[in-house]
Specification:
alpha/beta, 41% helix, 256 residues, Rossmann fold
Length: 256
């Protein structure tokens, strides 16, 4: 049985899948997650299993808070005690536009999945860790994937920005609470990453990156963020917790 095991939410594709792959390459047993058993989730599972680590598909909606305990138990029964939670599952706005026209359903959707679900899944995970004797040689962590929009305004996606800003603060609060328990908590804030969510605008941003919006003249790939997550969860940044990792090629570095 692997010494380390991770649940990566929203890992049927994009950043989540890249994180699951990177963690598997570090020897983690992996629970891949999506809201339902579909072809994407099955494909992700096969990709992870091909890397030679224990893996399972954990199909559940992270926003269904009452089922968190049930699913965490099922995961641990199959791949062993979890040491890492990667909160990656997230949604964008229902429609880009003027924040004065934002509807309640889009606001609530962002807050429910991007913020509330992350808070309560982290809570359930942390309680499980604290309820058992921890392997002193294992690294225990929560890695939250928020966004550069936790700090950078995007008016056409105001409700998304608000949800990610709240998620960033949740990361800090968990880091403070869990530090004494030797559980590290990180906030990875991706910038311009080529994913399904950014597909409608990534071509435009690719040109802006080449024109200097980012310090490296390219948009990021899911693998860039996945490798960062795996490094954090593997303890390759020892004696750190509570940090924001800006996976944005320096986009938000103040400049004149």
């Amino acid at each position: 049985m692997s010494r380390h095991a991770a649940l990566v939410t929203g890992s049927s594709r994009g950043i989540g899948l890249a994180a699951a792959v990177a963690l598997a390459r570090e020897g983690f047993a992996i629970a891949v997650n999506g809201p339902q058993k579909d072809a994407d989730l099955q494909s992700a599972l096969e990709t992870i299993r091909a890397l030679g680590v224990p893996a399972m598909a954990a199909a559940f909606d992270v926003s269904d808070i009452d089922t968190h305990e049930e699913h965490l138990s099922a995961i641990e029964d199959e791949i062993g005690p979890l040491t890492t939670l990667v909160n990656n599952a997230g949604v964008g706005v229902l429609q880009r536009g003027d924040l004065l026209e934002v509807k309640e359903d889009s606001y609530d959707r962002c807050m429910t999945i991007n913020t509330k679900a992350m808070f309560f899944l982290s809570q359930a995970f942390a309680k499980r860790l604290l309820a058992r004797d921890q392997d002193a040689d294992a690294v225990h962590s929560i890695v939250n994937v928020t966004s550069s929009n936790a700090v950078a305004v995007a008016v056409p996606r105001a409700e998304y920005c608000a949800s990610k800003a709240a998620a960033a603060m949740i990361s800090k609060t968990f880091a403070v609470r869990l530090g004494q328990e030797n559980i590290a908590v990180y906030d990875v804030q991706p910038g311009l990453i080529a994913t399904e969510m950014t597909a409608p605008v990534i071509e435009m941003y690719d040109q802006r990156a080449k024109d200097g919006l980012t310090l490296f003249p390219r948009v990021g790939q899911p693998e860039d963020v996945g490798n960062i997550i795996a490094a954090l969860a593997s303890g390759k940044l020892p004696y750190t917790t509570g940090q924001v990792i800006s996976a944005d090629a320096g986009m938000l570095v103040p400049r004149f």
